[in-house]
Design brief:
Layout (H helix, E strand, L loop, with lengths): L10 E3 L11 E4 L23 E2 L17 E3 L7 E4 L7 E4 L2 E7 L7 E2 L1 E4 L2 E3 L2 E4 L5 E3 L4 E4 L5 E9 L2 E16 L30 H8 L9 E4 L5 E4 L5 E5 L7 E7 L3 E8 L7 E3 L2 H10 L4 E10 L2 E16 L3 E9 L16 E7 L7 E4 L11 E6 L5 E6 L7 E6 L10 E2 L9 E2 L5 E3 L14 E3 L4 E2 L11 E7 L5 E8 L1 E4 L2 E4 L5 E6 L5 E8 L10 E7 L5 E9 L13 E8 L5 E3 L1 H4 L21 H4 L3 E6 L7 E8 L29 E8 L13 E2 L8 E8 L20 E5 L2 E5 L26 E4 L2 E4 L5
Length: about 800
Amino acid sequence: MLRVWGALRSMEIPGAPGARLAPLLLLLTAFAGAGCGAPRSSGFASSASGTSNATGANGSGMAASGSSSVLVVPSTDGGANSLVVGAGQASFSVVPTSASVTVMTGQPLPTVTFQAIDQGAVVSAGWSLDRGEIGSISSGGVFTPSGTVGGLANVTATYGALTATATITVQILTTQQGNPAWSATPAPPGAGGYGGVGGDGPAGPATPSQMTTFAATPTADATVSLIYPYDRTVFPQGLLAPLLQWDPGKHAFDGAQLHIKSTYYEYVGSFTANKTPFLNLPIPQSVWNAMTLSAGGATTSVTLVFSEGGRAVGPFSEKWTIAPTVLHGTIYYNSYGTSYVDNSPYLDAYGKQFGAGTLAIAPGATAPTLAAGINSGLDGTGCRVCHTVSGDGASLVTQATTASASNNTVYIDLANDATRGAGTALIAPSLAFPALSKNGSLLFSSAGGLIDGDSTSRLYAMPSATLVAGVTGLPMSFQGTLPSMSPDSKHVAFNFWGGSFATGATTINGDKVSLAALDFDGVSAFSNPRVLFSPPAGSSANVAVTFSSFLPDSSGLVFALQLSNPSGFWGYTWGQNTNELWWVDLATAQAHRLDSLNGYGPGGQVYLPDNADGAATHKAAQDATLNYEPTVGPIAAGGYAWVVFTSRRMYGNVAAIDPWKSDPRTYKWLDQVSDKKLWVAAIDLGAAPGTDPSHPAFYLPAQELYAGNSRGFWSLDVCKQDGQSCVTGDQCCGGYCEQGDGGLACGSRQIAACAALYDKCSTDSDCCGASQGIRCIDNVCGASSPPR
């Protein structure tokens, strides 16, 4: 799921400089399209059908960018165009200076031939392309599009010490009848649901009568609405395709036409209903992959028109932003009611034992795997929940139930777990929900508040869980609940549950509600205690900060603010507790609610959908307060921080039952989908303190569909050793992913002139593109702000 598509590197084809040639006619291959426009029902606006434009961006027959001496003349061979080189040509250049090709469904791939010109003569140059996913360029300068990804790429010619560059634009126009994955006999959906996102599965091709309907002018109807994904969502690349879901109002739709359009990619798909009633439609995965890779950093419009008995209803539209990045790492989460293991001390509503464990969503998966938990009898000794994972993805600490204690902390080496999910018991007090340093070598314990924590917050060396000697700055009575450690290991944040700190002439005291922080030297010394956020004066006694997590650059935190706990269970996601997610800037202590993430639109209006049947159990205003347990991904990607969190909101119409139904003992959990699920949202890096940098969230694909899921914890994948294949440097123990004879491989030293995105760095100047806003963020090169 998280890294289906890697960061694609340039595809270089070296060539040795050849001897100078006398001026001659240059042949530039141009694609001769079939000239068939898209059918009326395709939804495409007028477009050049299957053609290439190799005459320059101005389309006038004269090369653009000052190459006016290159004239396109009619060919006499019935296929190619001829270029005549004049004396005014620059000393070394590429012709054409810009070109474009359009790839259409079912048409041959067009090509463009680039030529290197030195002092008016064609020379044999080396050729390279900076975006290998868009196409390839041969040693003779012939560009061929991949046919699956659109965009703008740079073509570079190298001749001795000389270089010159041109641009190539690829447009993709795709029409499709039904989902290629559709079958009259559908495959079993798997633990994550169809496509890892649930719903009723792929839909077949539209009928001829439905195609006639789609060609007609649709009629609008305000009783119909799109309810997932949300308008203005920011999606990454490399994700499993989302499930389109809608409230049909009074209608019984029998088909749908989907139109997706971005700068370099356009798609029209026509479908018949996958089920009656027709309530959801998965975007074909191949379409999603092509669109997101073509639209990185751009806005994409998505429009649905429905058919109903010969009448077209719509259009219904949203706009999404596609971040120019894939998500990095694995997400570990608690599952109560998982079918992966049987170990609960209770029986479910069917009279059978169910499971509780820690599951993992790995890159590319459509379903999770079991990371911690074993089968056991009704004594519950196999349960493994309430976990924390180190940022490097190597260490997991979780709670195990034993015959003599309700909670016993165990450690799992994720790189090589010889215990098969059982873990190794730690000789230490209960260490539930601790903070781990990024490399897992230190543990800061939670005290007070949620479940059986340590008696006071202390620092332990891992994996032995022995107390670190000589610790300073932690009073004996100090209790910091649900702590988190910054990625740079320079700060610790926590709910200030108990104890006091002397700060000059004043003292700050634990109040069980505020978010506080300490500076840390990474070894044993804590200092500079301060309160970052306290609930506003006059707030209910139940309003309190619970879980928190640092941004990747350690500049601020995302935290959960408990609004109520009517059943008295502080910090939990159940018992009808309500929560919102906020963020606070570490330097200024300015905080702001994450409105777009929670579900608030402009003017504070809630944009989340109500339950389609009008049931009082699921109203939008309530769903905006059902967000809990945030964890921020360890890598800044595409100019965003990415936060995973628990929510009890509706997931379209797939999960739309009572939001508090998640305990398998109290309802038939295999017959209806619990709303307790994991969601992900993008947060702008570099946002001004006191503003809302968040965007609407999306459902995390590949989580177990029928289980109640919570406490997503985001970590890098266990790193790879030198010589192993890689996509980006954050996968590598040595920090670099470099081109070798056999492709990209991990290494411990920088071979290129600068560090690529997600490679290791020490300062901003180490990174390629430092002048364009690429920064060294926690020793990894990344974009410092979203694309503008």
